[in-house]
Amino acid sequence: MDMKRATFKGGAHLRYNKELTSGLPIIKSTPPKEVIFPVSMHLGAPSKPIVAVGEQVKLGQKIAEPGGFVSVPIHSSVSGEVVAIEPRIHPNGQRVLSIVIKNDEQETMDESIRHRENYKDLSGKEILQLIQDAGIVGMGGATFPTHVKLSIPEGKKVEYLILNAAECEAYLTNDDALMQRNADEIIKGLEIVMHVLGVDKAYIGIEDNKPQAIQTMYESAKHLNIEMYSLKTKYPQGSEKHIIKAIAKREVPSGKLPIDVGCVVFNVATIKAIHDAVMCGMPLIERVVTISGCGVTEPRRMDVKIGTPIEHLLEQCGGFHDAEKFIIGGPMMGFAHYSSDVPVLKGGSGILLLSAEEADLAPPKDCIRCARCVDACPMGLMPLMLSNTSIKGDFDKAEEYRALDCIECGACAYVCPTKRMLVSNIRVAKKEILAKRKQQAEKMEAEKAKGGNN
Would you say residue 454 has pLDDT above 60? Predict the structure, then answer.
């Protein structure tokens, strides 16, 4: 098996703890009694409910329509009755308008779900519409609507279509499991995207700590014009900008997008969802989730219906014990939460219950100026200086230090021996900088409108 090797500068070597689930099969979650669908489970405009309380719905039926171009529909993952449309707790901690459906456990499927034999009979535009109608978003966590990413701006050309199979976050093994179980479907999904974009070659990057996934993907892709890269296991290799740097040897400039350097990147689960939408007519109503951490009685990898309460999944894992931190997502870029009574969303890749030792809850101390954060930063920033300017409230200086280029990967905080709150402080600076820019833009618009009225 001939594969190229690649990596990037900076980053950190984590305690990955993937062995907690990496040898386990994907099992199907038992259906929940109730599913919850927040209208905001993707980037962009919230979806708009098109069902009413008391209405009967089918599995796969559209229950909310897009709120704009940068938005997607939402489909029911069960058949049953709409029992509420009301604010519920979202994984982001806020109360968000949500559609609540009581599961009738009949799995009555919507008539719109039909299998297709050959995608090549469809034009790229027709496939794009199928992807949009299926409600597909980036499933690696970003949740950006996939049809928007595939709508290449005029004047731009895709030279590198990259399948991001790095899965560099600790604990998470979803993509690894999908590649071992569904390699043929993933490769078919990649071919579909090649057809939509009009490219004749694709690239796959997999970290070298996934030998079985590498083998199964290679076997499925070996007769196609797909080049595979074995990526050095290092965090955050799965960052969009860094897998582009490793494979395409191109750097995405500050403030620019991957398409500006001729690249488009998709996550493994997203590509699998594209296959399911185009070939099976199935909207995005299910995903693989890793439930892990030493606080979980029986860590598992599960096929989960979107909208399933996390509490329901934890019950199937035997509950939890001695858990000091509850995280939705991965330990580096996920978010700690206070309640397990929230649903799994389209971008919900992991549920972690960490022990005190895993969470490493030591209080922060004074900086010792060791510069480990600088060495680890994959963006070539100075995290300490950014953090200090944020603490002082000097957000203009933070902008000069390129705060907005921070991808919030957490590598700096991970390697810091004094446990400084580097990422949290930088997030504050980014928020303030963006708020100031918005205020300035609104002021300019107001002055422009005032001048036009004179």
Answer: no
Q: 4-8+15-24+113-280: what CATH class?
A: alpha beta
180 in helix, strand or coil? helix
Domain boundaries defined on the chain:
4-8+15-24+113-280, 372-453
**In 3D, which of 56, 141, 144 has the Cα closest to residue 102?**
56
One-character DSSP codes across 202-245: EEEEEETT-HHHHHHHHHHHTTSSEEEEEE---BTTTSHHHHHH
Give the pLDDT confidence score for residue 297 in this predicted structure: 96
Written as one letter, the residue type at 179 is M
Q: Is the Cα dihedral 184, 289, 69, 66 positive or negative?
A: positive
Place of tokens 């009574």: 341
CA distance 213 to 105: 34
pLDDT reported for residue 1: 66
Query: Whose structure tokens read 């895993």?
Result: 358
Q: CA nearest 354: which of 388, 385, 328?
A: 328
Residues forming beta bridges with residue 231, ordered by sequence position: 6, 207
Give backbone dihedrals phi and psi of 217, rounded to 5 degrees, phi first.
-70, -40
Q: Apex CA 43: angle with CA 303 and CA 122, to 5°?
A: 70
Confidence of residue 361 (pLDDT cuts 50, 70, 90): confident
